[in-house]
Each structure stands twice: as structure tokens, then as C-alpha cells.
UniProtKB/TrEMBL annotation:
Cofactor field: [4Fe-4S] cluster; [3Fe-4S] cluster
SUPFAM superfamilies, per the entry: 4Fe-4S ferredoxins
Organism: Teichococcus coralli
Protein name according to UniProt: Ferredoxin
GO MF annotations, alphabetized: 3 iron, 4 sulfur cluster binding; 4 iron, 4 sulfur cluster binding; electron transfer activity; metal ion binding
Coiled coil stretches, renumbered: none
Record InterPro entries: 4Fe4S_Fe-S-bd (IPR017896), 4Fe4S_Fe_S_CS (IPR017900), 7Fe_ferredoxin (IPR000813), Fd_C (IPR022569), FdxA (IPR054829), RnfB_subfamily (IPR050294)
Length: 104
């Protein structure tokens, strides 16, 4: 399965939702997550993310995010259409310490 990680926070470009064939993205206040039981592991979303926030669960970066994706995919609403990214998305791209801003 694929996992949305820290750099999605406050970037939230949403290009990912447009390409997912099974619509398994869920949306929170400032980031998205993937439902691990619905993701078919196609990998199509990974190169679409301008923030490079999506990784396979085998990636080191996924470790601390796998459980959060599972948990919040069950609490947040499904999202299938790209909305407007935050106006300052670019400024947040790559900023360290964004995990502290995770906002469920
Ligand atoms: Fe959707 Fe494929 Fe990405 Fe999984 S890997 S979230 S199925 S686009
Ligand atoms: Fe987040 Fe990238 Fe999707 S920033 S909303 S995972 S396109």
C-alpha cells in the first residue's frame, strides 16, 4: 500500500485524488491520507504529488505515517475531486517539523 507522509501537511495539492483508480484518499484539515485496505498498490499517485509526499509503505519515510493513514482514513471524509491548494502551499513544501502541525 502507499502512504501519505509529512510533506503533505499544508501543501495539500490534491493532484493525487484525481488519478487514484479506487478513490481511496481521505481529507483532513491540512493533509490527506490513504486507506491502506482500499489502496490497490498501483503506484499511479506517487509521481503526481508535487510535494513528493506519497511513498510505498516499504519506504523509511512511511514508518511513522502508516498507522495515521489507517486511523484517519476511517475518520475523515473521502475526497475524489481536486480542490484549491492552500495559497502558501509552495512556502510549506519541504519545511521541517511539519508533523507538529498535523491537525486531525
Ligand atoms: Fe490510489 Fe494507486 Fe495511489 Fe493506492 S497507489 S492510493 S490505489 S493511486
Ligand atoms: Fe498531499 Fe501530494 Fe496529494 S501534497 S494532497 S499527497 S498531491
Amino acid at each position: 500500500t502507499y502512504v501519505v507522509t509529512e510533506n503533505c501537511i499544508r501543501c495539500k495539492y490534491m493532484d493525487c485524488v484525481e488519478v487514484c483508480p479506487v478513490d481511496c484518499f481521505y481529507v483532513g484539515e491540512n493533509m490527506l491520507v490513504i486507506h491502506p485496505d482500499e489502496c490497490i498498490d498501483c503506484g499511479v499517485c506517487e509521481p503526481e504529488c508535487p510535494a513528493e509526499a506519497i511513498v510505498p509503505d516499504s519506504d523509511d519515510k512511511a514508518a511513522e505515517w502508516s498507522e495515521l493513514n489507517r486511523q484517519y482514513a476511517q475518520e475523515w471524509p473521502n475526497i475524489t475531486r481536486k480542490g484549491e491548494a492552500p495559497a502558501d502551499a509552495k512556502e510549506w513544501d519541504g519545511k521541517p517539523g511539519k508533523k507538529a502541525l498535523f491537525d486531525p
